[in-house]
Amino acid sequence: MSENAPPGASYAAAGVDIEAGDTAVELMKKWVAKAQRPESVGALGGFAGLFDASALLRYRRPLLASATDGVGTKVVIAQRMDVHDTIGHDLVAMVVDDLVVCGAEPLFMTDYICVGKVRPERVASIVKGIAEGCVLAGCALVGGETAEHPGLLGPDEYDVAGAGTGVVEADRLLGAERVRAGDAVIAMASSGLHSNGYSLVRHVFFDLAGLTLDRHVPEFGRTLGEELIEPTRIYSLDCLALIEAAEVHAFAHVTGGGLAANLARVIPEGLHATVERATWTPPPVFGAVGAAGRVAREELERTLNMGVGMFAVVPPDAVPAALATLADRGVPAWVAGEVTEAGPGRPDGQAALTGDHAA
């Protein structure tokens, strides 16, 4: 072979840096260690996360619940702002708040981080957010994967996904089967946009309105970027506390599809749910999206959470205890509607918003 021949191919030359990946693992270890439960087994670095299933022996008939999700195009905001320790918090919220809807206690999560180029400090920052979210959710972070995909993603691009497992006693399973006419619909406030609808939000603010992330928005009291990156509220422990304090028939996590569509998922045939807009005033960001993009109200309500991140459906006599419990836990909540028999103007198994929002 000629002395001037090019060097042989290598993984590093193809864009994958194994040493950087190892450094990222070392940096994230201290955060993963904080997100454990007594049932966690083993340490970071194994091929699989371990969880002591003997904890399930205290259940008569344990049902395992599983959920998986990502955070959508909200990652673009994190990347542009170079703030990476909140997006993991969003990821945990999207997973565990789906688990708790059926009454399940989140037990553990695993994560998947796909990057264009491993930047160890950035990966560790993402994992820090995931670990902190797990602590807030009461679950363990038992494992994960960081993959470097040069050519698929740019050097500063990444995406995140996660999967979680929870458990609920079979005879305490919540859902549409428990919902009855006369039940009250309690709304729990969101912390902002959460992690849905960011394709619309980015289109409106950046493409149509021409705003920048560092633009100070008076009605927000902070920059546009700070508003858009606000972490998703994690409701799992609040919902579990609510189950212990009051009778709960169902929860509905308000994510993609908006208010009515997600509430309708727990309304059975023969019944109809009504939510009164006049019971709350959406935070300013929702009105700003509507105004800047001339977005119709119906489009906003089926895309964004409008200030409500979770619904609880409870019998009327459970309302005082439910509201008191949520207030004690610092979760703004209010009676937003009711469940009635279906009939003219009240379609079977559906939910509808009525009236106008409070000024």
UniProtKB/TrEMBL annotation:
Coiled-coil intervals: none
EC number of this enzyme: 6.3.3.1
Alphabetic keyword roster: ATP-binding, Cytoplasm, Ligase, Nucleotide-binding, Purine biosynthesis
NCBIfam families attached to this UniProt entry: purM (TIGR00878)
PANTHER family per UniProt: TRIFUNCTIONAL PURINE BIOSYNTHETIC PROTEIN ADENOSINE-3, TRIFUNCTIONAL PURINE BIOSYNTHETIC PROTEIN ADENOSINE-3-RELATED
Listed GO MF terms: ATP binding; phosphoribosylamine-glycine ligase activity; phosphoribosylformylglycinamidine cyclo-ligase activity
A GO term from the CC aspect: cytosol
Family listed: Belongs to the AIR synthase family.
Name of the featured protein: Phosphoribosylformylglycinamidine cyclo-ligase
Domain PurM-like C-terminal as annotated: residue spans: 180-343
Domain of life: Bacteria
Catalytic activity of the protein: 2-formamido-N(1)-(5-O-phospho-beta-D-ribosyl)acetamidine + ATP = 5-amino-1-(5-phospho-beta-D-ribosyl)imidazole + ADP + phosphate + H(+)
Residues that span the membrane, as ranges: none
Stretch list, region Disordered: 340-359
Enzyme class: ligase
Domain PurM-like N-terminal: from-to ranges: 55-168
Protein's pathway: Purine metabolism; IMP biosynthesis via de novo pathway; 5-amino-1-(5-phospho-D-ribosyl)imidazole from N(2)-formyl-N(1)-(5-phospho-D-ribosyl)glycinamide: step 2/2
Lineage of producing organism: Bacteria, Bacillati, Actinomycetota, Actinomycetes, Kitasatosporales
First-listed, main subcellular location of the protein, grouped into a coarse class: cytoplasm
Subcellular location: Cytoplasm
One annotated GO biological process: adenine biosynthetic process
